[in-house]
Amino acid sequence: MLVGGCNPSPTADSASATGTNAGATGSSASSVASASELPLTNTVWQLVELDGKPVPATTGLRTPTLQLDASGRATGTSGINRYNAGYELTAIGVNFAPGVGTKMAGTPAAMEVESAYLKALTSVSSWNITSNRLELKSADKTVLRFRGQ
């Protein structure tokens, strides 16, 4: 995969508690995060649900993670490999560019989870934070749910 270029502006919106991609829903939603909510950027987010199902306990699978920095970089582990991608965050949504990652092999089940995670990440159009939970949505469907640390 190649990292696509983007024009990130996460610092302006990193205090937002929600973001919706206007192309996906036709509306904009944002609000200021409360003091008890974790910030979207500079938090390590651990995946707890993938496409509405708990992350399976699979041999060779590390819990996928996501960390967004203020310069428009998304990094983490995708289950087996580490990845790095660009993202663009605005008041109306979030978009992830295809990323690059290491090329280690894993068990077929772990590789399947990793592939589904990366595919879901590139489909994201909006996000929501409630307390220490981050939801990434594609259209109106939550595709990834994380717990912040």
Oligomer: single chain
Structural class: alpha+beta
Task: State the end-to-end CA separation.
Answer: 28 Å
Number of DSSP strands? Answer: 11
The major beta sheet can be summarized as: 11 strands, antiparallel
Query: What is the chain-wise order of helices and strands?
Result: HEHEEEEEEEHEEE
Number of domains: 1
Can you tell me the overall shape? globular
Q: What is the second-level CATH architecture?
A: Beta Barrel
How many alpha or pi helices? 3
Q: Helical content, roughly?
A: 10-25%
Low-confidence stretches: 1-16, 20-33
Describe the model:
With 149 residues, the chain is of the alpha+beta class. The chain has one domain: Lipocalin (Beta Barrel), CATH 2.40.128. It is built from three helices and eleven strands, in the order αβαβββββββαβββ. The chain has helices spanning 10-13, 22-25, 108-123; strands spanning 18-20, 45-50, 53-54, 65-68, 73-77, 82-90, 93-96, 100-101, 126-130, 133-138, 141-148. A hairpin with a 2-residue loop joins β9 (126-130) and β10. The relative contact order is 0.26.
